[in-house]
Amino acid sequence: IHQVVLENYAFPGGMMVGTDSHTPNAGGLGMVAIGVGGADAVDVMTGMEWELKMPRLIGVHLKGKLSGWVAPKDVILKLAGILTVKGGTNAIIEYFGPGTASLSATGKATICNMGTEVGATTSL
Q1: Please, what's the largest Cα pairwise distance for the chain?
Q2: Which of 53, 69, 73, 103 is most buried when burial is the number of CB atoms within 10 A of its CB?
Q3: Which of 72, 59, 80, 74 is nearest to 102 (CA)?
Q4: For the residues of 37-83, what is the DSSP string, one character each?
Q5: With a threshold of 0.90, does the pTM exceed it?
Q6: Is 2's pLDDT higher than 70?
Q7: Contact (CB, 8 A) for 27 and 109
Q8: What is the spatial distance between Cα 25 and Cα 108, in angstroms, rounded to a whole number?
């Protein structure tokens, strides 16, 4: 079985709590990865339960494929223009639809990484 790994920690179907605000870049491979503060990370590392308020879901339906000079980063920049810096707070952003098939794994990771800029809990 061939397993895809991104940044030496991200893999499809995994779940992770990390200490960096851009941990959600792992969503580019379909991993639920959430960046938390130091105190929360310590709780997780010691085996304590970690609680999170039930996030809302923001669905982004991607159609077609990128053309010309458009890059994956333009997808999240457009969304950031719509949501502003707080519009994704307490939300998971999920990209879906036929347009996702034309994006590379690193392009998807870029989009998910920048979900942090709109306050998202994580993106995939």
Answers
A1: 49
A2: 103
A3: 72
A4: -HHHHHHHHTT--------EEEEEE--S---TT--HHHHHHHHHHHH
A5: no
A6: no
A7: yes
A8: 8
